[in-house]
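4.2 Preliminary Data

To establish feasibility before requesting continued support, the project team ran the inverse folding procedure on a target of 211 residues. The structure was first converted into the token representation described in Section 3, and no sequence information of any kind was made available to the design step. The complete token record follows.
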């Protein structure tokens, strides 16, 4: 499979073949879902926190005698039966949401997402981008390319001009090639590879996928 490599003025410069083992892998939607679910779970920060009865303020004295009052028996004011008392099985901020997948499964999920993008013709390349840092100029440049509204730009190494120029564009994100992940690939419609990032891709990711 080939993609078009564009020059900085928005014209077609050349065509480049994509690595078969990465961009023509068997698409496994289940693995992609699990990888996305793992990323979202691992990013969760448990905030909600309720107090148990032993953490609430209040006396542990029995409120009234057991018998003879005509009321249901009752214990301390901190009992979960009372208002502003301890909570039973409430959310706690020490809850662990971490999930894991094997390296082979994560790699296969990533290749599935890249292959899905390739099948949708949503990948193109960029030979180079030089000049001054300018959000306006970069935005005008992107409009010259056949792209969807949201764009993920993949860099081989840190590229201050591209990174700073795209920082204030809400539908554009830059990412280093070695940090490619399923969540970003599914979130952004179009994928723009810098040419050197595309060349670096096979050395970053192993060609072996889990079967």
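Position-by-position output of the design step:
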């Amino acid at each position: 499979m080939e993609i078009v490599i564009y020059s900085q003025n928005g014209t077609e410069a050349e065509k480049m073949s994509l690595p078969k083992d990465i961009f023509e892998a068997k698409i496994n939607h289940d693995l992609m879902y699990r990888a996305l679910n793992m990323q979202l779970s691992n990013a969760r920060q448990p905030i909600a926190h309720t107090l148990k009865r032993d953490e609430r303020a209040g006396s542990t004295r029995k409120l009234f005698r057991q018998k003879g009052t005509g009321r249901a028996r009752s214990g301390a004011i901190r009992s979960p039966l009372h208002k502003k008392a301890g909570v039973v099985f409430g959310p706690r901020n020490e809850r662990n949401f971490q999930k894991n997948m094997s390296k082979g499964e994560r790699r296969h999920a990533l290749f599935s997402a890249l292959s899905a993008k390739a099948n949708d013709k949503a990948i193109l390349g960029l030979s180079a981008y030089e000049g001054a840092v300018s959000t306006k100029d970069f935005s005008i440049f992107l409009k010259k390319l056949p792209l969807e509204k949201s764009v993920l730009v993949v860099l081989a190494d840190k590229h201050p001009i591209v990174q700073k120029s795209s920082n204030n564009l809400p539908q554009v994100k830059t990412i280093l090639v070695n940090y490619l992940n399923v969540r970003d690939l599914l979130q952004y419609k179009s994928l723009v590879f810098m040419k050197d990032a595309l060349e670096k891709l096979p050395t970053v990711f192993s060609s072996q996928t889990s079967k």
